[in-house]
Every structure is written in structure tokens, then in C-alpha cells.
Amino acid sequence: MSKNLKQKKLSPQNDTPHAGQDRIAFFFGALLVYLIGITARVTAFHSLWRGVQCTLIVDTTALLLVLVNRHLLHAVQKHLRNGYALAGYILTSAALSAGVIILFTRFLGTILPLLASPWTRLPNAQFVYFTYLFSAWAVAGRWLDERARYNNERIDALAAHNAMVQSEMQRLRLQLSPHFLFNTLNMLAVEIPEHSRRALLVLRELNHYLRYTLDNAERSLLPATQEIAGLRSFVRLQQMRYGESLRLTIKVEGSPQGHCMPTFLLQPIVENAIKHSMISANGTIDVHIHIVTKPGIVSVQVSNCGDLETPSELPGTGTGLRNIGRRLALHYPERHNFLLEQQGELVVAQLMLRGEPC
């Protein structure tokens, strides 16, 4: 896993977003408790000032008990084997805490007679209210903890998946360059004995293309303008190899500006078309590339004379096309189409990319 992914990974021990959400939830919950307490006590005391004083003292004590209970629940929940045991613990601690608050309220009325709450004459109502209060806080805290744990697991899973995808993309990119270089060196081995001058020109053009390849070897994505420029360099290399026997055209419609594409995505499609193309009626290998760019869409069509049903005289390993399919699945999940089909006497590769690559 990369250093950046490790830095972004969250854990239950130092989950800052969860701690922030917990504090916000506690703040709004405490505010609600104070509002309910003030409303009830002002009505009971018939005095705003006494109602506010009593609420601040009693409910603040209750909220401190909430924090103590939350800490104790964290400590003991790993020893509670099932949900019934957990529910029993929450209800028991809530009832005990309610009893403590009732005793504290009576003690407060003894030392401060002005704050002797009329509620002391209704111990059952007090007990039910505070038991509900402490139970609700415990359940809400437990829910927040479970949600934080679920979010942490999702983040860990996404980080692991992202690391796997990045590793796979890197493997596919590294696989492409040796594949292309192997094919080109085989071509030079054939050309050197009989056409040494043309082989030298091919070698020089290969040097330029490999420089382009090395400059972008560590980049998984390129602006579409650069990818098309790299494709044109590859086309020049192929035309130098085949000479007049290859008729290869590139037509670009729309503006590639603003689009990004996976690095070296188009080259293996064109290479496959040239390699498996049949000689046309005029004795040439005809390959046509048509690239259309629209807002949010890049469409590529590569056509050549051929027959998908007829085995090629130059069978390949299928590395290039498998590479394309896998990279498209990684960069454009559910947002791409790649078809290789027969249209009359032509074999047509159609590629459509929607949206920005991952």
C-alpha cells in the first residue's frame, strides 16, 4: 500500500472525523436536554431564574454521568457476549444513574431550599424520565460507535481496493512497452539484411517514440492531445516500416482539449489492426482511424480489411487487446464500450469512453 494511502487510513483509535461527529451529537443532545429541563422546571417552580438554576445544576450532573456511563460501556462491551446482555447492562446502568440523580436532587433541595424541586414529590416520574434519558444516550452512543466502525471498514476496504487497482494499472503499463518493443525489434531484424537504410530510419524514429514512451512511463493518464500525438508518432513508425504498402489515415473531429485518456491506450488497437489486416484489392494494407471528441465523450473507430472468421497468418498472443479490456475496466468502470466486429469486408474496432477516467 502506498504511503499516501497509509496516511489517509483511519482507525478506531484515532478516528478524528468520528470524534468530531461524536462531539457534535453530544452538543445537540445536551442542548435538547437543557431545553426540556428548563421548560419543565420553570413550569414547576413558576420562576424562570430558579428553573434555569436547577436545570444547570441537575442536568449538568446528569450529562457528566452520561459521559461516565459511556466510558464504562466501552470498557465492558467487549465482555458482553450478545445483544441481550448489552441491553441488560444499559438498562441497569440507566436505572442506577437515575437513582443517583434523584438522590442528588433531594440533597440539593436540602442544602438549597429555594431549589427544592416539586418533582421530589413524584419519584416514580423522575425515575422513569431519567432512566429513559440515560438509556437513550447509551443507545445513541452505541449507534454512533457502530456507524464509525462500519465507515472505518469501508474506508479500509476502499483503500485496499485502490491500492490493488493502482498496482494493476502499473503492471499493465509496464507490460505494454516490452510488448511493443518486441514487435518492433522483430521488424528491424527482418528489415536490416535487405533494407538497411530503411531500417536505420525506422531505428531513429523508434528512438523518438521510445523517448515519448519513457517521458510518460510513470503517468497513468495523459491529455488526449498528447495521446493522439503519441499515436501519430507510432503511425509514422509503422509507415516507415511498411512504406507504400501501408495506407494509414487519422481523422480527428472535435477538440481533444479538456479530455484525458489512459496512457498508450490507442496504440495497441492500431497495432492490432495493422498486424492482422488483409491486403486490399489495390494491394495495400488500409487502416483508417477516426477519433471524435464531444463534451464528456471520446469515440475511436479503427477499421481495416479483414475477416474475423479467418485465422490470421500472424497469430498473436492477444496481449494488446486483453490489456485494453482490463485497463478500460479499471479506468472507466461501467462507462466504456469496446467492440471488435465484422462490417462487410472490414474489421472495425469501436471504442467509446464516457466521463473522466479514474
UniProtKB/TrEMBL annotation:
<feature type="transmembrane region" description="Helical">
    <location>
        <begin position="48"/>
        <end position="68"/>
    </location>
</feature>
<feature type="transmembrane region" description="Helical">
    <location>
        <begin position="89"/>
        <end position="115"/>
    </location>
</feature>
<feature type="domain" description="Signal transduction histidine kinase internal region">
    <location>
        <begin position="168"/>
        <end position="246"/>
    </location>
</feature>
<feature type="transmembrane region" description="Helical">
    <location>
        <begin position="24"/>
        <end position="42"/>
    </location>
</feature>
<protein>
    <submittedName>
        <fullName>Two component sensor histidine kinase</fullName>
    </submittedName>
</protein>
<dbReference type="GO" id="GO:0000155">
    <property type="term" value="F:phosphorelay sensor kinase activity"/>
</dbReference>
<dbReference type="GO" id="GO:0016020">
    <property type="term" value="C:membrane"/>
</dbReference>
<dbReference type="InterPro" id="IPR036890">
    <property type="entry name" value="HATPase_C_sf"/>
</dbReference>
<dbReference type="Pfam" id="PF06580">
    <property type="entry name" value="His_kinase"/>
</dbReference>
<feature type="transmembrane region" description="Helical">
    <location>
        <begin position="127"/>
        <end position="144"/>
    </location>
</feature>
<dbReference type="InterPro" id="IPR010559">
    <property type="entry name" value="Sig_transdc_His_kin_internal"/>
</dbReference>
<keyword id="KW-0418">Kinase</keyword>
<keyword id="KW-0808">Transferase</keyword>
<keyword id="KW-0812">Transmembrane</keyword>
<keyword id="KW-0472">Membrane</keyword>
<keyword id="KW-1133">Transmembrane helix</keyword>
<dbReference type="InterPro" id="IPR050640">
    <property type="entry name" value="Bact_2-comp_sensor_kinase"/>
</dbReference>
